[in-house]
């Protein structure tokens, strides 16, 4: 049901706007290295790889060197690493972009994503191939990215920073994310939320807002 107080909508990227399949990346690195996927996941988790890269602690070069070192593949090219990392990014249905453009006529729209620079570069390529729109910045007033902010969801500070920087009131703001912990954290500071759960998409969740 539509919240009549809402003036601003913040979107997550993965599995909200852009379809993703996270385990595909670890399988891609397993295929490159000849290791089991479970071993790759253990390496990533023990070294907190996602958090390091997605909060900007690890640079693109640092990330690639980490992969080469941990997988014992010193001659692995940047392109091969990026392709494997990006393999979890699937498609971006054009009808979701159509919805965003329609919503933008009535609401201030923002993106808030836990992501890395390599993924954003690829996401923009997928967006352009699907819709002709060159970058995510063309769809939102501001694109907030964890690796640029030095914070990641569900840290409450990232939501507070978005509200402060954009000049938003929590009670006038709706946030959509596929991760329950991220939703809960935003709710704690008064942001209205929608937990996006496949196979339902934002087209259904926001149909009352797009009229």
From TrEMBL:
GO molecular function: hydrolase activity
Gene3D superfamilies, A to Z: HAD superfamily/HAD-like, Putative phosphatase, domain 2
Record organism: Dyadobacter arcticus
Keywords attached to this entry: Hydrolase
DNA-binding keyword on record: no
Entry protein name: Hydrolase of the HAD superfamily
InterPro entries recorded: HAD-like_sf, HAD-SF_hydro_IA, HAD_sf, PGP-like_dom2
Keyword Hydrolase: yes
Top-rank taxon, per record: Bacteria
